[in-house]
Every structure is written in C-alpha cells, then in structure tokens.
Write a structure and sequence with these properties.
16% strand, 3-stranded parallel beta sheet, 4 helices, signal, Ecdysteroid UDP-glucosyltransferase
Length: 101
Amino acid sequence: MKLLLLLSLVYASDAYRILVVFPTLGKSHSILGQGFVDTLSQAGHEITYITPFPYEKLPANVQQINISSVMDNIPEQESSEQALPKPNFFQRNITSQSSPV
C-alpha cells in the first residue's frame, strides 16, 4: 500500500521549477528566451526568468526579474575600426605556403 502511495505521488509531481537567464543585449535575442519561457510555462513548469527585456503580458506561472537597469551601465558598441586590431596584427600572424618556415 505504501509503495502504491509513493508511486502515485511521483506520478503527480511532474512539473519543475526552472531558472531561465537570458542576459542578452539585443531585443531579437531576447525573443528566443521568451520562446523558451513560453514553452516551459505551457508545459506547467514554474519559471523564474531573468531578462533585460521584460514581458508585457506575463504568463501566470512565470516570475520575472527585470535587469533592464543594468543596460545603462554598458558602454555603446564600438565601431568596427575600434573593435578590430590593427592590420599589422594580422600580417604578423598569417603565414603563407611560399614563405620559408
């Protein structure tokens, strides 16, 4: 009898508590994270979602942690000229087949 009770409790508890962290800087990447959260919440899981782009309409079993204030501390994206190393860096590190070893 105790075994039957134990098995019925295991069967009844099939939902999980899941932490989803999507600290992406782009809204388009955050849409992917919201897709994960939507799918997991529809399956009955309790979700804690950490994101800089909060939901407008939050599902019932999702707790959201808004980190959008962190975005103010991130510097603007560098231009490609600033981000890439100088051409001399590439010339030093590239060898060709015609050069002696």
